[in-house]
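Quick one:
INPUT:
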């Protein structure tokens, strides 16, 4: 029994004096991440490519510009955007006559000598033109693209002259023989052509007090929001007091609207009256329908 303690001491001393050697740690390697050297090389490569591409583009632009300046204009092309019904309110001949003459033709001139800005300014002065693009091509053509104004109403002055109003409130003269289905304004109208939009011009209170253009424009814009009203209105009469009377397409009567205000209320009453009257009687029995009165529709029957 006395030998056991000495063996235990030996074993204990063995474990105390025999430490395991630390293992060398292997650094983690991210195989997917490129080294700094590779990243730097890729960056340099991309920058070189970008520089070469930029130089090539600049060279191409300079070459094209020089070639175009040396070109002689051999053709003038006019493209006019027609309206949905295929109508044109300005002709190619009218445009060409405005920008050149027999003694000063654009064809035969060097492209560099063609006054693009002057041509654009001349075309834009035409009241029928909403927007114009003027430019030359590399092969020596002068291109003119025109977006024309689209009328929403036509008006006749007392002296017999007539004009259109477009959806932006601009007025322009009637040209050609286009048969357009538009509200037509007649009566005590004595309007002059203006270069500004009615929307802007009406801010001048003195002008708005004397002109009927804003009345015609805003009445038409309201009618355009309702398919039934647009189909029903044939023409509109404006008297000296700027009161409006509508002559409808259906029914032998006149609709007295009064002043161009509270149009939502007035036409809502009219549509309700039509709906009820058609169930009980003939609209041709009435000579007039008055919408001027608050909360009611007053009608006059014909005297047979």
């Amino acid at each position: 029994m006395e030998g056991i303690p000495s063996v235990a001491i030996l074993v204990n001393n063995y474990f105390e004096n025999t430490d395991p050697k630390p293992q060398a740690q292997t650094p983690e390697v991210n195989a997917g991440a490129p080294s700094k050297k590779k990243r730097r090389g890729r960056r340099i490569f991309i920058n070189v490519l970008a520089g070469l591409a930029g130089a090539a583009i600049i060279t191409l632009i300079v070459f094209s510009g020089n070639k175009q300046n040396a070109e002689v204009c051999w053709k003038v092309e006019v493209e006019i955007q027609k309206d949905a019904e295929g109508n044109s309110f300005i002709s190619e001949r009218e445009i060409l006559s405005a920008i050149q003459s027999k003694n000063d033709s654009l064809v035969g001139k060097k492209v560099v000598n063609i006054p693009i800005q002057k041509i654009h300014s001349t075309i834009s002065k035409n009241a029928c033109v909403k927007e114009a693009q003027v430019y030359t091509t590399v092969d020596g053509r002068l291109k003119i693209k025109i977006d024309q104004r689209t009328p929403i109403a036509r008006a006749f002055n007392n002296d017999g002259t007539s004009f259109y109003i477009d959806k932006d409130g601009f007025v322009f003269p009637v040209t050609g023989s286009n048969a357009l289905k538009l509200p037509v304004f007649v009566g005590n109208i004595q309007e002059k052509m203006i270069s500004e939009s009615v929307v802007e011009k009406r801010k001048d209170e003195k002008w708005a007090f004397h002109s009927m253009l804003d009345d015609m424009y805003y009445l038409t814009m309201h009618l355009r929001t309702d398919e039934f009203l647009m189909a029903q209105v044939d023409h509109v009469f404006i008297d000296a007091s700027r009161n409006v009377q509508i002559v409808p397409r259906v029914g032998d009567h006149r609709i007295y609207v009064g002043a161009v205000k509270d149009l939502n209320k007035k036409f809502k009453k009219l549509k309700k009256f039509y709906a009820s009257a058609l169930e009980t009687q003939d609209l041709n029995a009435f000579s007039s329908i008055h919408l001027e009165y608050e909360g009611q529709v007053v009608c006059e029957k014909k005297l047979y």
